Amino acid sequence: MKAEPLKxxxxxxxxxxxxxxxxxxxxxxxxPTPAEPVSKAPEAxxxxxxxxxxxxxxxxxxxxAPPAEDRAxxxxxxxxxxxxxxxxxxxxFEASDRRAxxxxxxxxxxxxxxxxxxxxxxxxxxxxxTETPRFGKRYTVTVHTPDRRWFPIEIEATARAxxxxxxxxxxxxxxxxxxxxxxxxxx
Length: 187
Description:
It is a single chain. This protein is 13% helix and 23% strand. By secondary structure, the chain is of the alpha+beta class. The strands form 2 sheets. A 5-stranded antiparallel beta sheet has the order 1-5-4-3-2. 10% of the residues are buried. The model is unreliable at 60-64 and 68-85 (pLDDT under 50).
């Protein structure tokens, strides 16, 4: 009796997902946007070689688009922030070092590291956690979202005495805005 060789079945795996492969996987993480939209379609105003320009291929002068505030169909998310110039009317926490930055104010929490940035509104945050090391000068702030994701950022302090100051400032912001978001969510 001769044994038959085992036949291998094709390996079926799901594609790998996550922030390491797709930065868009992280909600709130935004990348740089191109200054002008890139179109893959050929330009309508260019005639092909050897053909005379006709009414269909002649360049057409485009009218400039009206400003966003003049358009009735302007998207409120893309409209310029009208209250960006207004001073903050409540507590603000801001800490940064040479690479990282965190800002917490009435709009929410914004984290940035080098060229990457993400923003969380207060209704998108489940918890904010801080951690101070026993030794060293790195202050860690972690933003937790309701879908069980967390986004830590480390900020190097100039002195360990800054930790207490930063904790007090962040607590004041969380007391003012985080509880408001929870109350409006329950109502």
